Amino acid sequence: MAMGSPRIVVIGGGFAGTTAARHLLRRHRDMSVLLVSQENYFVYQPLLPEVVGGAIHALDTVAPLREMLPGAELRAASVRTVDLTQRWIEVVEGSAGRVERLAYDHLVLAMGLVADLSRYPGLEEHGFTVKDAAEAYALRNHVIGCLEQAAIMGDESHRKRLLTFVVVGGGYSGIEVLGEMHELVRRALPFYPTLHATAPRFVLVEYQNAILPEVPQDLAHYAHRVLHGRGIEFMLGHGVKAAAATALELDDGTIIDTMTVVATIGNGPTPLARELGLKMEHGRIVTEPDMRVPDFDNVWAIGDAASTPLARSDRPAPPTAQAAVREGEILAANILAAMDGRPTQPLTFKSRGAFASLGGRRAVALVFGLRLSGLSAWLLWLVAYAAMLPTWSTRIRVTLERLLDLALPRSVTRTRMGGVAPSRYVRHRAGDVVLSPGQLGDGVHLVIEGSYEQAAPEGAGKVFLPGDSFGQAEIAAGMPHKRFVRAREPSRCFILGREEYLNIQEALRQARERLPAGQGAAGSAAIPSEG
Amino acid sequence: MAMGSPRIVVIGGGFAGTTAARHLLRRHRDMSVLLVSQENYFVYQPLLPEVVGGAIHALDTVAPLREMLPGAELRAASVRTVDLTQRWIEVVEGSAGRVERLAYDHLVLAMGLVADLSRYPGLEEHGFTVKDAAEAYALRNHVIGCLEQAAIMGDESHRKRLLTFVVVGGGYSGIEVLGEMHELVRRALPFYPTLHATAPRFVLVEYQNAILPEVPQDLAHYAHRVLHGRGIEFMLGHGVKAAAATALELDDGTIIDTMTVVATIGNGPTPLARELGLKMEHGRIVTEPDMRVPDFDNVWAIGDAASTPLARSDRPAPPTAQAAVREGEILAANILAAMDGRPTQPLTFKSRGAFASLGGRRAVALVFGLRLSGLSAWLLWLVAYAAMLPTWSTRIRVTLERLLDLALPRSVTRTRMGGVAPSRYVRHRAGDVVLSPGQLGDGVHLVIEGSYEQAAPEGAGKVFLPGDSFGQAEIAAGMPHKRFVRAREPSRCFILGREEYLNIQEALRQARERLPAGQGAAGSAAIPSEG
User: A10, A110 in Cβ contact below 8 A?
Assistant: First the structure.
């Protein structure tokens, strides 16, 4: 990093942020460009559906920012505060949460959007999102886990539920994830002989009456035909009402019993973007045509996080990778122009086309007006994606894996590498069984809303209300539950995982054991005590 | 699974268990073989050092048991109880912890050994082990994390500490992990320009006066020369005294400042093996020469979990993959012989050779008495391992990755897929800094042993004793610490991670908010309350 030279800070390591940084360095060698990203890698999101399907390795969809951006200064950190008037940002780094203040001359806001499922009750708790490699891999593991459980499940209705997979949202990512999940299950089932009797069920729920609004109708129809031909159910014109642990409810009251709901709808601004107090439109920061943030001559916004008006169009630039790359390029030119006092140029953008893979060597493609479908589109998609990948390493590895996948079986290994959340929220519908006899239980349940009832031989049993919790006795003793616990009404609880609960109890036991005589364990109130 | 036919239950999905199951099915098609394994995959442990080095994908070191063992019944479950007289086992399955009892006619104990670092204070808390794919990948992520932190670390001494990597144990796995870690750092450093000034440090600590006892002296010397030539320090004839968050102490008082201690020493029986009450030797279940457990005609033990006397040898069969495979083969024959009332055969075993990769295209090999070292040994190792891999899929993928690794850079991406432990124990030496001004802190600290002191401007500050906790106020407020917190003496505390602590507090807040009037939150005592 060159001293004295103007410092440009880019927040966000996606398509927009990395393109901007690369072009700034390319046009101006001794410029000081600092890129701040939560992770130290770039995620090639278009590949994530294939990670869900197990066709390619999660790690081959990501590329190290340090490899992509030689010459840039990189911080794997989260941004805590931005002071647009004082011209600095504050970042939090490392496991110890080191806070550091960094000054800038120009600031580029390219933090993208985050999944926001809050509009749909239960979807935040039970909807899978596919925003990064870890999430995609976790969903894949969950699907395999459903097969494993179903394979040893006696109860027919629950087995069917485990084998029902629902995707909400009929855009690209919804259709691609659906196609890949179907492919994964289709190719995994032969390894589960006990499941040959039960056919898996796949459902697409889309609020509009058509899928793939991004491509011409005939291609969308082709995609619909192909997926329908594989037995996938389409519930078009249906919205989501609510999700719970064991079912998805649609706005017309339809109940789909499932353990797997993938939500590809609902994006919102990052917490940081909210706090900036800038003018927003549909959760995106409104900019001038040159991507400058109004009232600031040194603050810019690009990518999904920004809403930039397009010349000769009533719509802002679309939230696509193509547009983000274009914005990054022009932004670099504009920042340099602004520094030299030259006029900036407005954003112009024209889509070069669109792809949607359907899994099973089928895709639809619209490239420079040319319409393709089927195997030819899939091959074009294969090549095009490889070309768009960020590094040679990922290009070669991804292409090889896709070709190997044509010949080799898909793996059904389920590792703990997806990372198991130690705690989570769960919603139940009235009557849902939360704990069954013979189960150790998955954790301590703290009731947040509604109420639960423990079945008793003589009828009405113990009731748990908000603030109450249950399950700890059985976990502490390592003894299975003897009775059913059911939700009495639509309810919500917080589950602290079995293992984590036991770890915490053990720590408290050890601390108490060593309490100095006459010393109270004041602080330990900050950590769980036995119930 | 064939009804009525005798049911054989195998506990453990390693080399021994999978070989036994495969040969049982091969020799007797309609036999009912049930294999119970914690995971639904087989781990090819010899590849794990390369996962640490980032040369191959963690997921390519594992193969699905369902793919390896068609015809076997598989349970991804943990064994809770074994009743050797009633002839059943009890397993726990799935996230809900479903408990199920399974009867057997013959039982095969092949659960292997687990890492047991309890003999070395602090090593359980701060020693990395490399027993499965997730652990290997977590260690790789940790190494990259050390580079990321060092790259932005102002404090010279802490930067040195972050760049010091220690391996304890000079056997195969210790040497291989050491070589691969060195290779990873060597190839990653070019991406960290700010680190060009500081040279990384690698140390091997071995209690014996030589490394690689498994191979002939001249090969061991070669390995020593090669690694020494790379600047790796050898501390031979040194034992570990204790480990702490920021240092490793040796038995002669030597202190090595480091954040990375890999422990390849110390194996012990699984909790299950302990509970069986069978005769053990060095933590392994003693068997008859035919691998039968004394006093039981239908219980057998093989693999690392077993200690089986060898004909014409004063030593039991070694705990190696080769021996485990051999044992699995003979066991299958013996179980069938026992069923038919034929005599069983005693275990015989002769090692076919040994390999140790040194990273950087160097290895030592002893094959059928032939001694090789350097590139030729490495090439032989490449081919031999590929041949020994469990499925065609892994053979092809691993070989391809190893070849790609010769040409492509190693990735420095650090994903959260390793899984971050929500809570952990940490040991500190007297004077160790636990929290510094400007840090949010990594979590709530509950003091277990010793004591900590918060520095105060006017000298002696607040003291935290066992049962006390600190850090929650700053985390709750999201404000960085203003003062140092140091260990006053050798101390130990339990850290509940920042994110997890906040999740739990938020859940409690929501529960309280909805408390029915006049209702006490009895149960919530089971989950943390604000400190």
Answer: yes
